[in-house]
Amino acid sequence: MKLLANVRQLLRRQPKQRPMTTTTSQAHDTTRTSGKPALTSAQLDELERNIELRHHRNNIPLIRQLIQKLQQGVDSELQRQLDDELQQLPNATNPRLLRYDNQPYELANYKQRALPAPEAAKEFSELARAFNLFRMDHLGNFTGHKSYYLTGQLAMLEQAIIQYALQTLSSQGFKLISVPDILPREVIESCGMRTEGERTQVYKLDTGECLSGTSEMALAGFFANRVLAEQQLPLKVAAVSRCYRAETSGLQEEKGIYRVHQFTKVEMFAIATPEQSEATLEQFKETEISLFKQLGINFRLLDMPPCELGAPAYQKYDIEAWMPGRQMWGEISSCSNCTDYQAKRLNVKYKRASDGSVLHAHTLNGTATAIPRLLIALIESYQNAASASITIPEVLVPFMNGQRTITRNKRIPETKLVKFIKSP
Fold first, then answer.
1. pTM across the whole model
2. What pLDDT band is residue 138 in, cutting at 50, 70 and 90?
3. Which domains does the chain have, with CATH numbers?
4. If exposure means fewest CB atoms within 10 Å of the residue's CB, which of 111, 171, 201, 406 is most exposed?
5. Per-position b or e across 38-57, b if 16+ CB within 10 A of its CB
6. For 141-163, what is each residue's pLDDT tens digit?
């Protein structure tokens, strides 16, 4: 996908003295103006400051070299290299975030319920095993590392959470789309996730395609190379999918199902005009807050600093739940405004009603529910030591056939590792 048709295009205006006036939208602008460098030295300096602010890989020195070489004459291989490096530039950064340094800013803290005393609170894995509803041990030989089974009432609770989230999103105008889990590499990279390199989180197949890390990618790809009418926007869609992540962690606080290679997630996604995208992000944020308030867990809302935005996000909110058994905050949701970062790469446009102009849209995404971590927060928050049970949040009871508590599962046999010794 070409990001720059000719490096002799011009963005001649010198940047004003305010944060990030030269955006990646300008760097990837395909409007051709011949005879001038694509980006001035001052604009490249500004892009480099944004990269450093976001702790992104600094490829500006290489971009400078490629532009200088291409000014001496057109070379298709150099042009391809420049296009690839431009594609890796991160999005611009919301100026509001510049004052946060490298720390998230807590916007709100929601205390919904009294929790068990720290010394009495048990961790998810201990509770789930005691109730015979979970298995994660000794699976390496047939399902691989960081795999898990949910059984009985815990598997039902997973489905209840999904149905609860979908009912909420449907009532707010989201349209459900069933998405594929196998995607072309180009779609994943256009969404801002690299598929090559040692630190990639993407599983690659022998065919060259990849397993999707989130349905955001498939939803964005669904709108690739399309021109939507402005009257259709903001267009809000949702999907339930399995998410595949090659990432691993040896941290003690991330043990168990906190960080796994595959999990289920309900995702929100929207296409909006530039004028609508900020308000749409706020709607996503309020939807997530409402979902978790009704679940009755304790959580906090964070405005994330530039170094936590990744490549595509212009701004991002995170929601972290308090996990009593682990005695830690754990991220359970986020929502991001990617402005036109993904739309330019996937060619997602809209036709403006006032004058018929065809412009790049903005894309937004948010997590309605990420099952494993939400299960941790729910089970640890609703544990009842006295009755040896777990209370089901009231809002989930209708999706659990009226069941209000989880107790020990006696129908599914316990799995025990047995060692067979051959007799002599």
1. 0.87
2. low
3. 24-90 (no CATH), 98-406 (3.30.930.10)
4. 171
5. bbbeebbebbbebbebbebe
6. 666 667 788 999 999 999 999 99
